[in-house]
Amino acid sequence: MDSLTIFLILLALGFVFGKLAEGRHYRSILAREEMLLRLPATSCKKPMGKTLPVGHAELVHGHVVISVDYFKQLLASLRNFFGGTIQSYETLLDRARREAVLRLKESCPTANEILNLRIETSSISKGNSGDRVGSVEVLAYGTAIYYREVSSQHSGL
Amino acid sequence: MNYQPSLPEHNDNVSHQHPVREFIILVSGVLAIVFMGYWALGLFVDVAVDYLSPEQEAQLQTKINIDWDWGEDVMPETQAKLQSLVDSLQPCVPLPYPITVNLVRPSENPDMINALAFPGGKMVVFAGLLDAVQSTNGLMFILAHELGHFKNRDHLRALGRGIVLSILTLLIFGGDSDFLAATINQRTANYSQSRESQADQTALNALQCHFGHVGGATELFESLQSQEGESDLGFAHYFSTHPELQQRIDNLQRLAQERGYSQDKTQELMQH
Among the four residues B58, B125, B179, B235, which has the most C-beta atoms within 10 Å? Predict the structure, then answer.
């Protein structure tokens, strides 16, 4: 009976705090995405439609580790029985991916463009014991380029 | 081609179904599977128990040893007398293994009126029962009722179901062995109404076989019923798995009539 009580408490805590944390994170993501919209990030290997000489380029990266809450973890483990999409992890990965790209952009605020953007993900803690923490790492990396001529014009941004 | 920076209008990468809805659907699905599994495995246990040979049953009895703590042994002399009463019923309710009687008075509920059949041939009689019956015949009926559970292998059925239930709970919650043991102990004495009626039948036949009449068979039920009428507390909590008292009395009387069992004078209860 005690284990059931602990289980239900963990479930309620996971649900409430998970929901609060997620809401807060999404608000922050949306605001920062709008702010950084001026900095294009693409998976193209060459700049699009521009023939400006490049002053310098650098490797930039942003990464984030996000943990799953107990409620989401339980939902996912229930999916072990029935199969289907693990919807509870979708927001987790969505947040992690967008946060990683945001951090990448924030690491080079004066760049003109980010090329060759790549996103990779890995689960931080693997194991088969029940104590494992379900958390995911998303790493975004790309090449930030600074144009020679326009860098002075854009420096005010 | 120019790059047009824009924000997505809506997020297509996440599902917008409410997680609580998903949770309820998944949990009810799991529970349905568990209940179906329990039901099917319970049927399997019933079939398997019926297939056991008396030798296998006797062998099983010696291997099962459930420890319990009902408080200290009180009244060893009365316990010995109960043991001899149970032994005297053996010819009427033949069993392939010996039955040991334990007389107990649990400290938290000293007046509890009950008797239980445990795996391993252990019969537990609560001391409150001795105060509730008026005659040896009435007491013998209850003892024969428990012997009937042994004869019908109800304790093995209950044990099997208890194990199934524990395994299912372990699968769902993970868990500790204490929880497992508690469940087995708790479930062991819990029989369904049809099993109770069958044990009543066995007891009635045993009473006829032992005394030559079935006087006193319904004695305890009648006294419980009058007590139940007096106090709101009642004994309904213990008899919840037992058929309604009046129904049991009616069944026993009808059965006695059908078989032509007479009801003679009962013997006075032994002193304890």
Answer: B125
Q: Is the dihedral of CA B186, B120, B122, B37 positive or negative?
A: positive
Chain A's closest residue to B14, CA to CA, is: A90
Report CB contact under 8 Å: B19, A75.
yes
Residue A31: domain span? 2-154
CB contact under 8 A, A37 and B15: no
Contacts 24+ apart (CB under 8 A), B220-227: B220/B113, B220/B129, B220/B132, B220/B133, B220/B138, B220/B141, B220/B142, B221/B245, B221/B248, B221/B249, B221/B252, B222/B249, B223/B132, B223/B133, B223/B134, B224/B113, B224/B132, B225/B249
Residue B160 near residue B187 (C-beta atoms within 8 A): no
A49/B179 touch (CB, cutoff 8 Å), yes or no: no
CB contact under 8 A, A3 and B7: no
Give the tens place of pLDDT for each residue, A27-57.
Answer: 999 999 999 998 989 998 888 776 788 889 9
CB contact under 8 A, A37 and B13: no
- For the question of whether the overall pTM of this predicted structure is more than 0.90, the answer is no
Nearest to A121 by CA among A104, A133, A138, A134: A138
CB pair distance less than 8 Å for B33 and A81: yes
Is the Cβ–Cβ distance between B204 and B214 less than 8 Å? yes
Laid out side by side, the sheet with A54-67 consists of A54-67, A135-147, A113-123
Does residue B36 belong to the interface with chain A, where contact is any CB pair within 8 Å?
Answer: no
Q: Which residue of B has its CA nearest to A130?
A: B174
Rounded to 5°, angle at Cα B64 from B61 and B67: 130
In tens, the pLDDT along B10-63 reads 888 888 888 889 899 988 998 898 889 888 988 888 888 888 887 777 777 777
| Domain ranges, ordered by start, for chain B | 20-259
Domain count, chain A: 1
The minimum CA-CA distance between B69 and chain A, rounded to whole Å, is: 20
| Residue in B20, B173, B176 nearest the CB of A4 | B173
Please report the residues numbered 115 through 174 in chain B whose beta carbons come closer than 8 angstroms to any beta carbon of chain A. Answer: 173-174
CATH of the domain at A66: 3.30.110.70
